[in-house]
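Comment thread on ticket #2218

A.B. wrote:
> Attaching the input chain for the structure job we discussed in standup.
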Amino acid sequence: MLRKLMAAALAVSMTAVCFTACGDSSSSSSAGSSGADSSQVSTDSAVSQTDSGSDVNADLKAPVADGPIDITQGMTENMLTRSIHYEGDTTRLANKLKEAKSEDNDKIWNIVFLGDSITAGSTTSKGEYTFVNRFTLWWKDNVNKKSKIINAGIGATNSYYGVHRLDRDVFVNTPDIIFIEFINDTGDMFYESTMESLIRKCLAYETNPAVVLVEMSLDGGGNAQEVHEAPAEKYGVPILSYHDAVDPEIKAGNLTFKSSGGGSSDTDGLSPDGTHPNDYGHLMVAQMIENFLDKVAAGADDAGEITPFDTSSESVTGDLYKDARICDRSTGDIKAKDQKGFKDESSPWNFKEGWTATNAGDTISFDMEFKNLGMLYLKTIDGKTGAVTVTIDGEEVKTIDGDFPNGWGDYGTDIEVYRSDETAKHTVTVTVNDGDKTKFEILGWLVS
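C.D. wrote:
> Ran it. Output below, let me know if you need it in another format.
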């Protein structure tokens, strides 16, 4: 899934091509926020050491277990405790939960999960085992049956693309609660600015939705928390961390991240590929969300009233993407001109409104108004996709290569090609470069 590690899978529950445990379907609800059975719960006196002899319990919110953990039973109580990385301001969430639990309320509750292929459920053995579907069962059993829960996960994507698709994929559902997960932001501080704008846009939406970040982990402990912490904490957005829950246990030798067999229902590890959770990893993710909501709901009577977000409040990164949106042939706000060779089509089923070139020298231009501009395009493994040159107002700004040699599959991706301090009208031209690979697909434009 990771775009940079090229480990993304392509199934999506929205479900998006190019971008898409064991235990029965009620496991999430039955285990729920209670975690594993009491025999798994670490005691406060338990001390485990790494091979170097250092105490892995140092600075932990709750100690690691004193022996191997049975992943089929989900998270231990101490793992659930550690999973609350940052509680944040729970006023919005408490009010939403209190109202949703009210027997006098006939409202339909809308919850959206925005994320990448982990959110989409890649590598689970069945759709019902994804953490979103497990959470759905728990929510309808424990909070409110009159609910619509939307999985807006698209594999191989990040918060840069995420902030641009809020209107199309999130706000169209008038969300009451929004969960955000983007492991693909790992290791690149560029995504601090995209996440800040994403959070601000969500908090400013007319329904005053509660927003919660879900942070995942990679084999070896890689995660996106460092990138996301500053914007989340500035706005009091809670952070739930799968990484904080499982990584100490892995270091203590109580869990293994990557399973030996690479199967979705393996019981000797949490991931078949070192990136995506397997069935039991998804069970744990669902449990940590359910656990947090249970805790917030318990104190909901003492929560104050929701305060609408102040859009004039200071932004640490400049709120570069506050007007972010996707433009393509379907949106009506851009139109191609001087079209030579490019056809009005693109191949991914969920990105049919783009433009495709097949020959060197094919060119296409667009008149657009923007401050910042990114391109959505297709990377392929067939050896036919080449590179294009992007010019803005006649000045060359970027060369983009769509070839993905020896990759895991075709996928849609994004790249920022231009950034400015002022909104202005521009002419953007894309030209296919010379070479033996001359196919190229523009899937859309990311405009802000």
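A.B. wrote:
> Thanks. Noting for the ticket: Residues 323 and 448 are 5 Å apart (CA to CA).
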